[in-house]
Each structure stands twice: as structure tokens, then as C-alpha cells.
């Protein structure tokens, strides 16, 4: 290289080279680790000169950073919208991250002094044309030494063989598909060399003919398996096919008898001869098909056709076959009936077109053309006008069939009259719309919680009841729980957790609670009813329900409760006076008269009963107004149970009351109210069981809670009643013609008292076998 003007001398090596020579010359090498070209080593320049002026694809990595160069012949392998032209001057590792683990070991082998590599049809995927493509290469990696004789770079002389490899794969696939098709079709194959008389057949043909397993046999051996009466005819057919004038076509049916097993078959042989330039047959190849079952299949096909026709008739399905080339339309009687025509009436394509309501015709044609274009099933629904003027809906399913040129030549399918279904759908839509309007009129809000996806949907009314103004998806934590009144939040959250457990709630949800609008801060009372839906493993899937604004109703109830409380208090005073007068009368001489004694005793009982009723109403009113206070204290639950038991044994002398396992359980609770709960449960057990039967009180401890159970041997409770036992004013209807007094507030009060203590109360029962009422209380730590 001349030292006078190194730049000129350098670019003598880089001149020409087409597009890549121009790109290399225009590249700003001052920013590259190689530096400017005038300072490049002679070995690099020489290699680049050879590469750029070669029409064989070449690629060069140079230096420790493996800086990249390539020529125009290699350029097409990079595709469009890929690595070109940024690959020029780029580090190899930065350019080829997708294949670097594959090619880097080859580069290292050459750079470390190893021998050159050669790979043929190697799969090396590269990123090009906006995607990662499978590319096959035949390539050689060769070392290029620098001036000191050390490895300076790696020259890749390569050729992309993707098309050749893919063609080879396609050829193999085609052969495999052909073999599979022949095997699936149960076909034998054969190949005859007319010049040598050698005959080759596959294993199926040899098995049918009873020939040996040799790859080649004489034609005469194969002819021996043909029955004598067909043998000469087959020879003549082969001879004729070998003449150029015949076009080489061979198609004949004959019978064979297996040489080894004597099994007979009917065979159809088809083939084609190949001729050379002198019009001499050089090969006759083809297939054979066992047509022995053809007659049986024909009979079965006939029977199947009859069965199909019966099935179509039974399902009121009409069948049709429309030939596009001729316009002819073949259809059965039911198809005609679907269009309002009798079985013996003529029916054609024009009558079909005229029957369809004009406004639906464009859609019918579009669906048909789409099915033909996409080679898919054709399905359409449209109304037709019968000859009597009535409108009927028709559903059609069909399949297009195509000729050798790929054009649709016919469509075959079935139709049925779906007028009733369409009318039913319209009625269903009408009912749905009516239900929607009714919901809006009733101002019901609805919610739908998908427990699988974790999504929660509220309608506009439901959002209003929670004072939500945003249109974002509703959040259980941020919208629902945050919108509950603080005094109701824990109770409702617990109720929702229970509704997801089928064994606890059966998925039923019916609660009342207060909301405080997140945006409008308005206090509302609502009643929410819903249902959880479970899968076969009782896993909750969806929780759906409605919400009704009962603020006004609650206001009425509060006013009613205030009135009840006031009246109850007013009644208490005169009732207390009456009770005092009765007790005074019982002390005087008048009470010594047996008749008066009984009368006064009955009067005293009635006063006590009236007092209990008034106390119950007072408790209800206090509970509703939130004034039912709990005066908690530490006490031994067993002592309270024994005390209640002793009092109850005197009151309910007609029954035997027993206690078991009620050891020392200490609780912090309102002793008087817990005692009223136990007494109420005992009273119910007496009411609903026969005289002289036993009532059992059992106690047990579970997870820091004491469970008290009251068993009776009474008439039991139906399952539908158990769910409502603890509702206010609910009374069980019994089927034994027994009048049982009460207003249905006792169990309601019991439930509220127990829940106020942080416990639970529930019942189990079997009709005619008695009931068990359970309640739990937290044990004192």
C-alpha cells in the first residue's frame, strides 16, 4: 500500500462491489472499533476485495469483536425488513442473538486455529421479513490470517438451500401421504417392466395373490392367480395398454384365487403406461382394489339411504340438491312442505327464489357465496311466504361441492320449518323486555359476581343505591364494603362468605343492611336477595342477585316499633297493677274457696302470658332501634343451664329434661338473655313434642367456642321451614292438627341475642323424628 495517499489506495480494494461496496464505502468507520479503512490491515482489504467482487454468497467476521461484512450475493438471504443494512459494521453477537449459541462455537473453532468447517443443509433460523424464519444453509467457515499469521477473521462461503430442503421435505411428505392414502384406501400397487417382464407389487397385492415376498417376480406368476376364465382377457388388456394408440390406459375387473389359501376376490386394476420417444412402452404402473364387498356395500348404501329418508321424515327435515350448472333442484316431499307445497307439486329454483321475502334475499345469497368461497358449511335462516300467504321461517344447512376446476357445481343439504322456534324466541325476547321494564319500574338493582374471573358487574340502579357515580368496574373492597354502614359491614361480609359455602347456606342470600353513598353520603336501607351457583364439586362459580331500596319501608317499621314500644310500656303499668290485685286476692280468705283459687290461678297465668308477650314486643322494638343492650358478665354456663333446667322442670312437668357433658364452661355474656334463649328453646321443644318425651341439653367445645344443643323427640320441621325459622314473625305450619301458640318472635330474638354475642344459631331436623337447635358462644380465654 502506498504511503502517499492511503485513502485512495484503500478504496481501490473497496471499489465496485455493487450495493454492498457502496454501503461499506459510505459507512462512517471512524465510530467503529475497526477505525477508518485507510488503517485497515492488508489482509482485511484483500479479503473484502475478493468477497465484494464475487458472485458467490460470502460473509466475513473480522477482529476480536467479529465485525461483519457481506457481499451482494449474500444480501438476499437477509430478506426484507430484517438485519440489512444495519448488519454492516455490527458486532456479530449483537446482530445474531437468535442463533449466536449455534454459530459462535463454529467461529471459535476456526479462530482458535482449528480446521475449517463444512455444513450441508444446516437449519439456522434467522430473523428476516419481520419474523424468525427457518433457513437452511450449506456453508464453510474458513480462517483468514492477518499480517502476523494469526487468525484475523472468519470467512463464510455459503449458499442458502432453504428451497431445496423444503422441496425435498415436500417430496418426502408427498410420498408419505401417498403411502398413507394407499394404505388407508386398502389399495395394492404394482409396476410392470414390459421389456423384462418383471412384476413388482406391494405387500397387500402379494398377500391377495398369494405370491412370495420377493421384490420382483415374473408376470406369468401373477397371472397364475387369476381365474382361468379371466386370464386371457387380462393379458389382452395389458397388451392393449402397452400400445401407444391406446393412450396407455388400463382399467379392468377380474377375479383371483389366492395361490396359497384359495381365498377368492373380485379385483379392479387400473394403471397407465409410460412411453419413450420411440412410442415404446417402458413402464406400466397402477393400483388394484378389492371390490368384493361392493355389492354388499351397495345394499348397505341402499338401506342407509332408506334409513336416512326415514330419519329426515321423522325430524321433518327436507333434503335438497341444487345443481348450479343446470339450475335443476331435486328435493323430497318434506322440503316442499317446508315451503307450503304438497308432495306431488312441482318445485324448482325459481319457486324457491320467489318464496323468500325480498329483503332477506341479499343476505341469503351472501351467506351462500361466503360458504362457497371459504369451502365451509352453508347455514341460513330466512322467512318464506307460502302459497296461502302465511309467513314461515326456514333453517337451511348445506354443503357446497366442487368440480375439478375448483368451481362450485352443486350444493346439497337439508331444511326444516323453524317457525315455532322463531316465534318462541320472539316471545322470549318480549318476556325479557317485559321483565326488564318491570325491573326498572320496581327500581330493582342487579349485580353479578363472576367468582372465576373475579369480576363484579352492577347495573345503574345498584350503583345509585350505593351512591356511586363513576363508570369504572365495581370493586368488592372499594365500592361494596366501603359503601356499607359501619355497623353492618362485618355482618354482611360474614354473610357473603357463608353464601359461597353450599353446605352452610345452600347459596341463598337474603339480607337487609344500610348503605352510605360513597359520593352523595346518603343513608339508605336496602334488601339484597341473591343466589350462588356451584359446579359439580360444589365450587362457587357465580353470585347473582338484586337489590331493592327499602328505606321508606324501614322508616315505617321504625315508627311502628316506636309505637309498639310506647304501647308496650303503657300496657305494662296496668298489667302490673292487675297482677298485684290478683296476688292480693289469692292471699285473702276468698282464695280459700277451691273454685276461686282455680280462677285466680288461671287469671295469674294469663297475666304472666300477657307479660311475656309484652316483653317480647319490647325486645323486638329495642332490637330494631338498636337499644337491646347486653349486660355481659363472667359466669359458669353449666350453673345457668342447671338453674334453667330446674325452673323448666317445674314449668314443663310433662317432659323429662336431661343434661349431658355440660362441664365447667366460663363465658362473658348477658346471663339473663342467654337464659331466655335456653328457656325459649326448651319451650319450643315442649310445644312440638309429645308428653312424657325426653328433652336433652348437650354441651361441647369446638375451636374456642362452646356449643349448646337442645334435642327433642317431636314432630320435626320441614327443610323449607328450617331456612326461615329465625325470621321475625315466622311460624311453622304443622301437619298434625295441633294448635301451637306464639307470634313467631322467640327464635328471631334468640338469633339476634346469640349473634350479638359473636355466636351462631341453627337447627337440624327430620320430620317425625325430632329437632336439634344449636347455638355457640365464645369461651372466656
UniProtKB/TrEMBL annotation:
Domain of life, per lineage: Bacteria
SMART domains: HATPase_c, HisKA, PAC, PAS
Domain PAS: 424-503
Catalytic activity: ATP + protein L-histidine = ADP + protein N-phospho-L-histidine
Keyword Membrane among record annotations: yes
One GO molecular-function entry: phosphorelay sensor kinase activity
Domain PAC: 250-303, 378-430, 509-562
InterPro entries tied to this protein: HATPase_C_sf, HATPase_dom, His_kinase_dom, HisK_dim/P_dom, HisK_dim/P_sf, PAC, PAS, PAS-assoc_C
EC number: 2.7.13.3
Keyword field: Kinase, Membrane, Phosphoprotein, Transferase, Two-component regulatory system
Histidine kinase domain span: 566-781
Pfam families: HATPase_c, HisKA, PAS_3, PAS_4
NCBIfam families xref list: sensory_box
Name this polypeptide is given: histidine kinase
Annotated organism of origin: Taibaiella lutea
